[in-house]
Request: fold
Amino acid sequence: MHLAVLGPVIDALHLRGDVDVCFTSDDPERIRPVVPGRFLTHADARWRRFDVYINADPWAAVALRRCGARINFSHGVAGKYDLDNPVGLPLDFHHYDRVAFINADRMRRYVEARVIAPGQAALVGYPKLDRLATGGCDGKAALAALRFPAAAPTALYAPTYSPAASLHHAGESIVRSLARAGFNVIVKLHDRSFDPDPRYTGGIDWRARFAAIARTAPIRMVDTADSCPWLAAADLMVTDHSSIGFEFLVLDRPLIVYDVPQLTEAARINPEKVTLLRSAATVVKTAEDVAAAAALALRDAARLSSARRRVAEEVFHDPGRATERAVALIAATLIENRHAAGDRLRTPIPAGREAR
Reply:
């Protein structure tokens, strides 16, 4: 997922031709095949010299001993797990030279809470969404690759991860209901829903569960890191509360939110974000209601259009040009770091502190 968040930025850096990019992860088996020849283990990376380190998850940062500068990019907007109220979270943002935000609201919260200094903050947007926002994702090709048995409207079911989420509450019923109502259904689960840790999955093998349903219904589970092609392929989406739900609003297509009351507390969601997402969606409480709401949404797709566009503009800063701003931020940080390094070299070493 984090590679998908930074993928457009990495591609743009490659096009520059003057930056070499290496990758590291605590999950080598998943990442190494995606970046052949450019993967370093954490141990290999720790003492290697780098000009800049970028990541999309402050919880999973690698300890680098010879790194010139560090930049963190946000990877979500849903306000879960206290990320809209970060006081007390072990995020260690003081290690970063710059922190790149997806929207002005989150940036303001972090500066006002003194989690970061004003000089660290950068309003960049969400590079992951640039191609989606500008029509660069080929939804028809993504849909064709799934080989549904017949032409039909497409619904995307994309819940968040948590035993308190809709996946555990009614996920299989939601998908069956959509299929019975005449939809082809794409199931896109959060990465954590495939994690064997029961804190995230409740010990359930969701691949096996949905594979069983797919034997008799037009259902396809996808597990690619980048969700944008599946967003582009869908006529409507069903979620509970997730960043991907907000992302879908960029397309101005109908969104249905399945209400799971206990999720807000369990996932420590900012109630303001719950209200914001629902202001642009149809909210339902049962799997049967999902199918009825989906059919109605297709008949009146313009309903809630202005709300969808308003929320998308609020949550994503200037989508379509975030990658450009991210690359500019990295380039400026590299230049600043080189100048700072030059100043350090020109500064005389105080008496008694000569290098030994």
About this structure: The mean pLDDT is 92. The longest helix spans residues 322-346.
